[in-house]
Amino acid sequence: MGTSLQGKALFAKGSAVMQVSMLVGIGAAALFGVAEIASWRRNNRRDVDNVGFMPWRGIALASAAVALFATAFWLSGR
């Protein structure tokens, strides 16, 4: 297992907190992708009157923020 200069693990193998933050980041990034695809489909729909109720843009922005924070926590090792 590789270590950094500060003696902390570089990989999430040994720390449960790092694993959780990594999984949260991956899940949020996947949700961001789904929300962007859904938003694109909404903008390119054939029936303009068929309006949906999901705020895909807000879901995408929130999931991107969660992914960024989870990645930051994962990289900091806390």
For this entry, give a set of tags.
about 80 residues; mainly alpha; about 65% helix; about 0% strand
Summarize the structure.
With 78 residues, this protein is mainly α.
Outline the secondary-structure elements:
Elements: H1 16-43, H2 56-76
Helix pairs in contact: 1-2
Verbal overview:
There is one protein chain. The protein has one domain (16-76). The protein has helices at residues 16-43, 56-76. The chain has 2 helices and no strands.
Identify low-pLDDT runs.
Answer: none
What is the rounded Rg? 18 Å
Give the overall form. Answer: rod-shaped
Q: State the helicity in percent bands.
A: 55-70%
Number of domains: 1
Query: Structural class, from secondary structure content?
Result: mainly alpha
Count of individual helical segments: 2
Number of strands: 0
* Main sheet record: none
Mean pLDDT: 82
Question: What proportion strand?
Answer: under 5%
Q: What is the helix/strand order?
A: HH
Oligomeric state: single chain
Query: Roughly how many Å apart are the termini?
Result: 18 Å
